[in-house]
Structure formats: C-alpha cells, structure tokens
Amino acid sequence: MSHNLDRYHRQMLLPAIGEAGQKKLLNSKVLVLGCGALGTVIANMLGRAGVGHLVIVDRDFIEMTNLQRQVLFDEDDVRDGIPKAEAAKQKLAKINSQIKITAVVDDVNHTNIEKLAQGCDVIVDGVDNFETRFIANDAAVKLGIPYVYGGAVGTVGMTYAILPHTEFGNSAWEQAGRATPCLRCIFEQAPPPGMNPTCDTAGVLGPAVSIISNFQVTETIKILTGNWDAVRDRLLSIDIWDNDIRQFKVARAYDVGECTCCKKRDFEFIDGKFSSSTTTLCGRNAVQMTQKLGNGEKLNFNDIAKRLEAHGTVKANKFMLRAEIVDNGEPYELTLFTDGRAIVKGTKIANVAKSIYAKYIGG
Ligand SMILES: [Zn+2]
C-alpha cells in the first residue's frame, strides 16, 4: 500500500520523529490487547499516528455503560451488538484508510498469546486483569517484544514500559543500554480476586483512563521510532483527582531480584500453570467460559436459538447469540460466540455459570 505522508505533517515536524520516524511507524505492527477504555484510546491514537498494522483483540461486546469512556464506540454499536474489536476496526478504517487493521474477537489467554504477538513490534496493554497481563509479559520476554503496561480504576492510573531482557541480549534497546525490569520483576504475583478495586466497585473516571492510555501511546511511538533514550524507565502513577503524580524507580528490581520470567526464563503463565477456563470478568457480574470447539468448528446459532426460545428472549446475529433466561427465579443473560465461548451474566460464581451453560447449551 502506498502511503501519503502529508497527513502526518504535524507529527513529522517533531525532530525526534521526522520523515524517517514516520516511515518506521508505517512499517510497524502493534498488538493492542483489549479494546475497552484503554484499548480504544490506544487504537485510536496509534491509528491516527499512522502505525501501519494494528491487531486489536477483544472478547467482549459493547454496552451502554462503556460509552462514558470507550471513545471509538457509539449508541449504534450498542444497539447492533457489534463486538468491540470489530466496531473499532470499522471506526478506524474511516479515520485512516491507509493502515491495515486486524480485528480478533477472542479471549487473550496462554494458548493464543504467542501466535498473536509473533511478528509484532510492540504489545500494548488494554486489559483489565493481572492474569492476562502476566501472560502478555511472558510473551514479551520470551519473544523479545517491548510491552507497555497500563491500568486505571477510580481516578488512579499506572503505566510502565517494559523493554525486556532478551535471550541473547542483542536487541536494539539492550545495545542502547535501555532494557528494563519486566512486570513480574515488579509485581511478583497477581493480586488475589476480590482484593483489588474494580471498575464495578470503585467506578472509573473517563479522563483517568484516557491520560494513562495516552502515556502508553507516547511510549509506544518512542519505541517504534527507536528513541530508546526517551522511553520512561520508571513506573508512573497518577491520581488525577488529587493531582498526585509519582514516578517509581524500578530499575534495580531486575538486578536484585530472581525473576522467574525474565531472569530464569521460566514462562509459567504461557505454560498455563495458572490458567483458568472460567474467568470472572472485571467490573461485571459475569463469568466467561472458554469451551474451545474442534478444528474450525462453529456453533449453529439457529438450532440453539430454537431451543432457547422456550426459556426466554433470544437475539442473534452472525457474531453472537444472546438469551435472557430466568433460572430458579434468578435472571441470567447468556451470550454465546461462534467459537463456543460463553459469557454468563448474573453471577460471579464459576460453578453457577457452568451449570447455567450446561443446562441451556449442553456440555
Ligand atoms: Zn522480570
């Protein structure tokens, strides 16, 4: 695809970018993990900046309560039941038709992360839980790909750019003396479920997410253009309500620690040591279940819809089927995707979700 560089004029005026930097952006491939509050801002700004290929992965669909902060979506997307990754792709294609956008409607987990990350220049974090972040961190260190962490809840956000120590120590950033500790050097373990505030319990202010994700975008642009010296080597934490901004020096965490991931190169999260087939979804009274079907097999929504119509209201399009069911006097919303994945809304308990699934969909 031939690119017209004129549209990037204002960005190319910056001495650290210039025409050479712009061409690097256009030749780059970035993996955006999650397309919610963080991910929509990340994909939006990277697409406008002219990152040549964006791969956007998200398992979820759009709800009205997302529109307060998820900047690529509108009420039509909620009404039409479009998955987030697909809706983002459609919107971005109108914003910049010169770049390539790949939408992946799927869960990010230990079975698919390496395939998703392979060949990407940067992985940017827009996910909502530490299990997925550690999976991404494992992939980043194993494959030698920079990984830009970010997260926000309430009015507080954190971000940090990982330029990983690689197997042979010969990456461009290591040669520039700029490798940084990985996420597990800093946070050894994921906080246990229920111990951390979520968007559901604590709420979230749109600008808190927007600011953090724009910091992530900035670091990503520095990395893609090879401006290694400009990449922030500290963990940044901001409370935009209290105007409290802190930067934590974390460089020593690699030297003094015995990191399982980047020092021992034991990729426990990719190996599935901590993986779960059911996940309680952050910020929602819902459980996701991953039930992978056989090779290329797809669910037949027509058959399932007919069966479920006896139990409640059923809506389906080519991406998903949604049924509102009352079971034992309790209301549940069951959403099915063609690959067999399901989200059961109305419970946080995995076994309740499993039984609802088994009852109405089958094993
Ligand atoms: Zn580490």
Overview of this protein structure:
With 363 residues, this protein is an alpha/beta fold. It has 14 helices and 14 strands. The protein has an eight-stranded mixed β-sheet, with helices on both faces. Strands 9-10-14-13-12-11 form a six-stranded antiparallel β-sheet, with helices on one face. The mean pLDDT is 90. Zinc ion binds at residues 181-182, 184-185, 259, 261-262.
Helix content: 25-40%
Count of separate structural domains: 2
* Continuous helix count: 14
The backbone outline, from C-alpha atoms, is: globular
The fraction of residues assigned to DSSP E strands is 15-25%
Mean pLDDT: 90
CATH architecture of the largest domain: 3-Layer(aba) Sandwich
List each distinct ligand once: zinc ion
Strand order of the largest sheet: 3-2-1-4-5-6-7-8
Helix-strand makeup class? alpha/beta
Order of helices and strands: HHEHEHHEHEHEEHHHHEEHEEHEEEEH
Q: In oligomeric terms, what are we looking at?
A: single chain
- What is the CATH third-level topology name of the largest domain? Rossmann fold
CATH superfamily of the largest domain: NAD(P)-binding Rossmann-like Domain
C-alpha termini separation: 46 Å
- The tally of beta strands, per DSSP, is 14
Largest sheet descriptor: 8 strands, mixed
CATH class of the largest domain: Alpha Beta
Low-pLDDT runs of 5+ residues are none
C-alpha Rg (nearest Å)? 21 Å
Salient structural properties:
alpha/beta; Rossmann fold; 14 helices; 33% helix; globular; binds zinc ion
